[in-house]
């Protein structure tokens, strides 16, 4: 069962997805801090975790090694003090300590791989089957906003579908190195996808937040199922440059598009807030070459106009 929580204003521990932090690409920044820019405290916590795990393994190793070494003799010479026997005790002790500490995780992962192979062979594999935890909350730094944010967490790794989602849904920003995909929707809504987490920003109410989560979950599964038919895309709309777009407009500042200048139109076009069709002069024969170059430039970054979710 999916666990769902509505957190009252000001009580959310998930500050990384509040309005205090930027969610866009390019000017907007990253959806979440990358490992190399993470606070030093995060690194200290990671270091402590490794130390605790190493210490636990060492204690188990010493216990198993001591028990085996004190209760057995060398299998070759029959002497209890033989270095070969001690070496064998060390190997067995280390192996038992490793299995004691990590055996359950290995079994769980192996079971997951086997189930995935079986489901794939049946043609019914779903990359994201289960949401383990769904938390809905108001922006912590501005509780007056009539919007909700939410975070869904799960065990499945959805990062393999990111290049295909980026191609099909027109991702705003795709960080391939850190496996973060940002989808920009209409009316200030954003969906940020991580390997084991989905963050949704700007929903009107709980019902819309749940609907957006169901929608992106269905898109993940449907697009992953037909990934062999899709050409993956590793570039994203955030890579578009306003000045490059401007160079390919008529640059007449005629205001026929509804914007005061061609610069304003170019900026809105990059954001997906308008389209090529909204610039009448571009469709004149004398601007045909510019129009075709602009279309090719936008398409190379997976550009799309904002759509309702």
From TrEMBL:
- Alphabetical list of InterPro entries matching this protein: 4Fe-4S_dom, ACDS_complex_subunit
* The keyword Cell membrane belongs to this UniProt entry's keyword annotation: no
Q: Which UniProt keywords apply?
A: 4Fe-4S, Iron, Iron-sulfur, Metal-binding
One annotated GO molecular function is:
metal ion binding
Location of region: Disordered = 1-46
Q: Quick check: keyword Nucleotidyltransferase in the entry? A: no
According to the entry, every stretch annotated as the 4Fe-4S domain falls at: 237-296
User: What PANTHER family does its record include?
Assistant: ACETYL-COA DECARBONYLASE_SYNTHASE COMPLEX SUBUNIT GAMMA, PTHR36214
Query: What protein name is recorded for this chain?
Result: 4Fe-4S domain-containing protein
């Amino acid at each position: 069962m999916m666990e769902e929580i509505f957190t009252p204003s000001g009580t959310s521990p998930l500050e990384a997805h509040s309005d205090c932090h930027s969610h866009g690409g390019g000017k907007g920044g990253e959806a979440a801090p990358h490992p190399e820019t993470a606070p030093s405290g995060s690194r200290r916590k990671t270091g402590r975790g490794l130390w605790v795990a190493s210490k636990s393994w060492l204690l188990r190793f010493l216990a198993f090694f001591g028990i085996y070494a004190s209760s057995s003799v060398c299998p070759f010479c029959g002497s209890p003090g033989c270095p070969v026997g001690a070496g064998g005790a060390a190997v067995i002790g280390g192996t038992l300590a490793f299995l004691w500490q990590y055996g359950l995780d290995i079994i769980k992962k192996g079971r997951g791989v086997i189930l995935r192979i079986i489901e794939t062979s049946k043609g019914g594999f779903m990359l994201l089957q289960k949401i383990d935890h769904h938390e809905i909350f108001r922006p912590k730094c501005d509780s007056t906003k009539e919007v909700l944010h939410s975070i869904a967490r799960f065990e499945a790794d959805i990062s393999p579908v990111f290049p295909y989602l980026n191609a099909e849904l027109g991702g705003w920003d795709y960080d391939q190195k850190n496996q973060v995909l940002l989808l920009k929707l209409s009316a200030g809504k954003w969906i940020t996808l991580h390997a084991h987490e989905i963050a949704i920003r700007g929903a009107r109410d709980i019902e819309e937040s749940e609907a957006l989560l169901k929608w992106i979950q269905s898109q993940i599964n449907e697009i992953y199922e037909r990934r062999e038919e899709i050409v993956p895309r590793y570039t994203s709309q955030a890579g578009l440059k306003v000045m490059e777009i401007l160079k390919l407009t008529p640059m007449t500042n005629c205001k026929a598009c509804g914007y005061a200048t061609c610069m304003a139109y170019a900026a809105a076009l990059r954001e997906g807030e308008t389209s090529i069709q909204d610039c009448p002069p571009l469709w004149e024969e004398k601007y045909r070459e510019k129009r075709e170059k602009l279309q090719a430039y936008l398409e190379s970054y997976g550009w799309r106009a904002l759509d309702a979710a």
